[in-house]
Write a structure and sequence with these properties.
- With 409 residues, the protein is mainly alpha-helical.
- Helix content is 68%, strand content 7%.
- The protein contains 12 helices and 6 strands.
- A two-stranded antiparallel sheet has the order 1-2. It has a two-stranded antiparallel sheet with strand order 3-4.
- Helix 6 (180-239) packs antiparallel against helix 7 and helix 8 (313-348) packs antiparallel against helix 9.
Length: 409
């Protein structure tokens, strides 16, 4: 069996590139997650229970982002001297690595809680949502998503199953597993969390799809019913007698087929109706032809059918908005899964050495993805981000008390 040659990251160019990538991710993550935090703080519109979990996710990403400059510095520091710099010391690296791992686990579990939250928001009523997600339970859930990774990794470190130290070969602070059981326990927890997350979004997708089909069928049935009712009214109006107006006070019913009332020829004089001592010309409004009346009824049907589509516009707008928000959060999950897959594959393969540090960089990109997606896609965060970046806090809709104080409203 050919022994595996150990890889050492000695190339200064690669060290500088990796340090630069860590620095850029850290900058974007710090600025972006602060924007999320202040956006929720300044806008009452963003102060929802779902966004409480989003803020918890941005806190975990923010802590990961502030640890990355130390990873960048550890990658370019000269660790050959004795004693080693504190950046490459085992104690300092243990703190940085523990912080990153706990925040990573918290991010995964928080996204699972967000997925469950969106599933209930989209598929259940508001009262049912309040029963499943009361505010005290939300606080307990946030505490739990921090305690689970902290307990799992803390116990594994204290019992010696995981070693947190400086990797001189890769020039990064990382963790090594000395016993496979810890990999299965911790990896199994996170895999289960991601599986539940994806299942929730799949259920949301099929629910929204069924709901859209049901709405389309209801509108089609409503349009058919309107046409039938309109056609029935048209037939009733066509065969009902018309009233002949005589003078201003006397009305005599005249049928269209009355021979005495209408002359046979088109150029005959107007009929004269004798009532008492006075003779009056029969004044009447000509009947609308059947085809014109049909067209007129068709326009009414079309108008009513179109109005049926816009019944309860606010409710439909809110439902569509919740769907857009759910899609946005699902994009965050997809971006996180894409970032974690290369690291997971490389970590599981003993022969994966040189790409390891690059997969670690890709993994940390998830800390800056959430605010970027919110800034470009979220219908509520996007305008608030714009107001903050342009220093126009007065443009924030539904400002919080703090925003009103800052703008002196």
């Amino acid at each position: 069996m050919t022994p595996i040659m150990l890889f050492f990251l000695d190339d200064r160019a690669q060290q500088s590139i990796i340090a630069l990538m860590f620095s850029v991710i850290s900058f974007l993550g710090v600025i972006g997650n602060l924007l999320v935090f202040f956006a929720v703080l300044l806008s009452r519109k963003l102060q929802t229970q779902t966004n409480v979990l989003v803020v918890n996710l941005c806190v975990a990403d923010f802590l990961t982002s502030i640890s990355l400059p130390f990873q960048a510095a550890a990658g370019v520091v000269d660790d050959s001297s004795s004693p080693r710099s504190f950046l490459s010391s085992d104690g300092f690296c243990a703190v940085i690595t523990m912080l990153e791992i706990v925040c990573l686990g918290c991010s995964i579990l928080t996204m699972t809680m967000i997925a469950v939250n969106r599933l209930i928001v989209v598929t259940r009523s508001k009262s049912a949502y309040g029963q499943v997600f009361p505010r005290p339970l939300l606080v307990v859930m946030i505490v739990i998503v921090w305690l689970i990774p902290l307990t799992e990794f803390g116990v594994a470190v204290l019992t010696g199953h995981i070693t947190l130290d400086y990797y001189p070969r890769f020039r990064v602070c990382a963790w090594r597993e000395d016993y496979p059981i810890s990999k299965f326990l911790i990896g199994g927890t996170f895999a289960l969390a991601l599986f539940i997350t994806l299942c929730c979004y799949v259920k949301i997708y099929f629910f929204v799809r069924r709901h859209a089909r049901a709405v389309t069928n209801d509108l089609r049935n409503e349009s058919i019913n309107l046409q039938l009712r309109s056609h029935s009214r048209s037939l009733h109006t066509r065969h009902s007698p018309r009233r002949l107006s005589i003078g201003s006070d006397i009305h005599v019913p005249v049928a269209w087929n009355t021979v005495d009332a209408f002359p046979a020829a088109d150029n005959s004089p107007m009929p004269v109706v004798k009532t008492g001592k006075h003779n009056h010309l029969a004044s009447f409004s000509p009947q609308i032809p059947a085809r014109c009346q049909h067209n007129e009824n068709a326009e009414v049907v079309s108008t009513r059918a179109s109005s049926a589509v816009t019944d309860h516009p606010q409710a439909k707008h809110n439902k569509a908005l919740e769907t857009d928000i759910t899609k946005n959060l699902f994009l965050v999950v997809c971006a996180f899964v894409i970032s974690i897959v290369p690291f997971t594959i490389c970590f599981a393969l003993p022969s994966c050495q040189e790409p390891f540090v690059y997969t670690l960089v890709i993994l940390t990109m998830s800390s800056c993805v959430n605010p970027i997606i919110n800034g470009f896609k979220h219908p509520h965060f996007r305008p608030v981000f714009k107001s903050i970046l342009l220093c126009r806090l007065a443009d924030i809709q539904q400002p919080s008390r703090l925003a009103r104080k800052l703008t002196k409203r």
